[in-house]
TrEMBL record:
Organism phylogeny: Bacteria, Pseudomonadati, Pseudomonadota, Alphaproteobacteria, Hyphomicrobiales
Name of this chain's protein: ATP-binding cassette domain-containing protein
Membrane topology, from the record: Peripheral membrane protein
Domain of life of the native organism: Bacteria
Family membership: Belongs to the ABC transporter superfamily.
GO biological process: amino acid transport; peptide transport; transmembrane transport
Compartments reported by the entry: Cell inner membrane
Keyword annotations: Amino-acid transport, ATP-binding, Cell membrane, Membrane, Nucleotide-binding, Transport
Database matches in PANTHER family: DIPEPTIDE TRANSPORT ATP-BINDING PROTEIN DPPD, OLIGOPEPTIDE TRANSPORT ATP-BINDING PROTEIN APPD
GO CC, one annotated term: plasma membrane
Length: 308
């Protein structure tokens, strides 16, 4: 439901998404809650890549899944805040308050998500072409032939070599890197304004990872899409991000341009994350890991903060 006319949410012209004071909690028992996201605010401009970075369990995925309104299926509730998105028709909607039916129509068409493991996201019994075409037919009034043509064009857009032949292949016939390109093609098929990539290269080897990061950058130049890139790896952040939000225990503890975050990290945790990447470590405070040994997920620490 979009707010009534008098309370219409507004966004600056160049902003695609604005997450404001977002709070998300999981029911962790009859009396307690786990506050996975605590007052998170950030925005993404048109054509910008924002990286959400932090250790495992810091709340990155829950933030992303909540933007897509998927966490409620895992028993989470949005307990505060807004998620304003500029839609293709120019209207601004608060995704946190839309009905499931409206949100379902926006997923894929206005905003899409790519996960880490393409094999578990792709359906093994349908061809690559059918899976991309299905995304098109679901949202657009296209014939199967038109949808197939869009699937082919999108496979070419994500630089899948020999795209005509690949269209009729099954996921198991493709390499891991090609499968991730197909996932990106499915996400792009309806040309959303915002694509969320949740650790999209973590399962890939380093060379393929670099190729996928190159692809994301090239796509952004070509189609001016905004990207929310989720990763625990500051090396990846350095490759893709324009702006960086550092997340710790459900909160954003530091935000800045990629240049500022690497050149003058303010928070000890940011310095610890930079130091955890050997090739970047020299840029940061060498003592940070000792001062801030947080690079291992400690669920009991988070659970200790459960609120009654
Ligand atoms: N389905 C769920 N039920 C209960 N708690 C959950 C669920 N999913 C996530 N959480 C909790 O929410 C918190 C944030 O998890 P989240 O997955 O967002 O972390 P993350 O930073 O994305 O880490 P990772 O990279 O490991 O996914 C964690 O404490 C996690 O245990």
């Amino acid at each position: 439901m979009i707010l009534s006319k008098s309370a219409k949410p507004e966004l600056p012209e160049d902003v695609i998404l604005s997450v404001e004071d977002l709070e998300v909690s999981f029911a962790a028992g009859t009396r307690a809650q786990l506050r996975a996201v605590r007052g998170v605010s950030f925005s993404i401009a048109r054509g910008e890549t924002v990286a959400l970075v932090g250790e495992s369990g810091s709340g990155k995925s829950v933030t992303a899944m909540t933007i897509m309104r998927l966490t409620e299926y895992d028993g989470a509730a949005i307990t505060g805040g807004r998620v304003l998105m500029r839609l293709k028709d120019g209207k601004v909607a608060d995704l946190a308050k839309l009905s499931e039916k409206r949100v379902e129509a926006l997923r894929g068409a206005e905003i899409s998500i790519v996960f880490q493991d393409p094999m578990s996201s792709l359906n093994p019994v349908f061809t690559v072409g059918d899976q991309i075409a299905e995304a098109v037919i679901h949202h657009q009034d296209k014939t199967p032939e038109q949808a197939r043509q869009i699937a082919l064009n999108t496979l070419k857009l994500v630089r899948v070599p020999d795209a005509e032949r690949r269209l009729d292949q099954y996921p198991h016939q493709l390499s891991g890197g090609m499968r991730q390109r197909v996932m990106i093609a499915i996400a792009l098929a309806c040309r959303p304004s915002l694509m969320i990539l949740d650790e999209p290269t973590t399962a890939l080897d380093v060379t393929i990872q670099a190729q996928i990061l190159d692809l994301v950058r090239a796509l952004q130049r070509e189609i001016g899409m905004s990207v929310l890139f989720i990763t625990h790896d500051m090396g990846v952040v350095a490759e893709v991000a324009d702006r960086v939000c550092v997340m710790l225990k459900g909160e954003i503890v530091e935000e800045g341009s990629v240049y500022d975050i690497f050149a003058k990290p303010k928070h000890a945790y940011t310095r610890a994350l930079i130091s955890a990447v050997p090739r970047l470590g020299s840029m940061a405070d060498k003592d940070a890991p000792e001062k801030f040994p947080l690079l291992v997920f400690e669920p009991e620490r988070l659970l200790a903060e459960v609120t009654e």
